[in-house]
Design brief:
The structure is a homodimer. Chain A is mainly alpha-helical. In chain A, about 65% of the residues lie in helices and about 5% in strands. In chain A, helix 4 crosses helix 7. Chain A binds a DNA duplex through helix 3. Chains A, B: Pfam families: FCD, GntR.
Chain lengths: ~250, ~250
DNA sequence: ACTGCCATACTTCCATACAAGTTTGCAATA
DNA sequence: TATTGCAAACTTGTATGGAAGTATGGCAGT
């Protein structure tokens, strides 16, 4: 497993800012830095033994992704997980991946099907408690779908939005429906192979809607990590989806 | 009309970086700064009479949006309009707005319909050569759709992606199909009012596919502004859509 | 005329210093 | 004890200086 020790020195030969951004992003998404934690440019600069400037630039990037909240002249804190942001990110992913999968089914490529099935086999081999590895494989699977229809550039935008969803993912360490997710991956590939556009799309949408089922439980278990709308959870009002169940 | 003179001094009471970012972004999107133009931190800093630091931060933001290409230790140039980026941005918008409009038709709100129709009336009153005003109204129209389904946050994501599309828009100053766009807006609202989910979605998709018809002409008229794939335009290969015409 | 080398100028990246505003805590006062 | 005022210690925003690398143009040599 990759070392994630925050104190491991950076590689001075490589550009500092991207390294810092990645490290801090990981620490936030994995909840090592918890929502509400204060974080200051000078502090981080000291820890990694660099100047404030690259730290600042990393902060700005993370603030753009909604992971930090910079209040000028006041402080910078790790932002809580905005409920609405999670829903928005999920909505975007569903919309985008629905079309990607539909395209994929339309332009089916047999070699690709094989690659995808092999990748799913890797997912099955992951131990039930190794969320880390599974997350990487899951991410890879979805990126492969985008790549396959020539929309690799599209996926990089999705990644920028995914941050809030990933934080939720790392909070649901237990009762993670790994087997179900793998089964859904298989069903998506099945539908693509069958060139069934509608079924492929519907399977992808259901797959991406699954987190909505688990979100309330994760929030209930970690209420202080979330930034909820007034009056607590009322998903039926604020988060209509196209599925019907959540309208 | 808003003053866009690049030399107008910034407001020193407000944060410099966002002001700079906005100004530069406008100048690039409106092609005052043309693809390939060199641009340097010190130069811009002198023009606006600020230090290099906020300029640098603005550069980074614009590079993230694909408007600038920063080559460390070499130079920074206004990036050409990447053909693939335009297609990707359009694809994302179609996927997202298709779902937004579908949701809208599902949760129809009579008051909203009236607001939208009134907004379309404003579009009709714009003079044929006033692309500036029409662009603002068109943008507002689409944002209203997102707002109406509680997906305002989603729209800010779209805005980040839209930059490359907007550059194309400002290149197609003439033969701009304003009347057709307005007609399509009307058809979208009609379908929403009729609660016809499928037709609303299809109308939105067609609306957002329209630029594909004009893109080749714009490119042919401004070839040096674009960054084309090897061997020139082959949209039928590289840009499958769900519509069928471009598959 | 043409080629290869080298000094110079220019670029971004990082470090450091300063400015402006906010928070914090203590002390003075009622 | 409670409250008010102020000063010091923070915060981020901006300015400036130096370092490392690259483009550029002139000059020497052929």
């Amino acid at each position: 497993m990759l070392q994630m020790d925050p104190m491991r020195p950076l590689d001075p030969a490589l550009p500092i800012t991207p390294q810092l951004t990645q490290r801090l992003r990981d620490r936030i998404i994995r909840n090592h830095l918890k929502p509400g934690d204060r974080i200051s440019e000078t502090e981080i600069a000291k820890v990694y033994d660099v100047s404030r400037q690259p730290v600042r630039e990393a902060f700005i990037k993370l603030a753009d992704q909604g992971l930090l909240l910079i209040r000028p002249q006041r402080r910078t804190v790790v932002s809580r997980i905005a409920y609405q942001d999670v829903l928005d990110a999920r909505f975007l992913r569903e919309a985008i991946e629905a079309d990607i999968v539909r395209l994929l089914a339309k332009t089916r490529d047999d070699a690709l099907i094989g690659t995808l099935r092999a990748q799913i086999e890797l997912q099955k081999r992951v131990h039930a408690d190794d969320l880390e590895t599974f997350t990487q494989l899951d991410e890879q699977f979805h990126r492969m779908l985008a790549d396959a229809v020539g929309k690799a550039g599209t996926w990089s935008f999705v990644e920028g939005v995914k941050a809030q969803m990933d934080r939720v993912r790392f909070l649901s360490l237990f009762d993670y429906p790994m087997a179900l997710l793998i089964e859904q991956h298989t069903q998506i590939v099945d539908a693509v192979e069958a060139r069934d556009l509608d079924r492929a799309e519907e399977n992808a949408r259901q797959h991406l809607r699954l987190m909505l089922d688990y979100l309330p439980g994760v929030i209930a278990a970690n209420p202080s990590f979330f930034d909820l709308p007034e009056g607590g959870l009322a998903p039926s009002v604020n988060t209509p989806t196209l599925g019907g169940e959540y309208t």
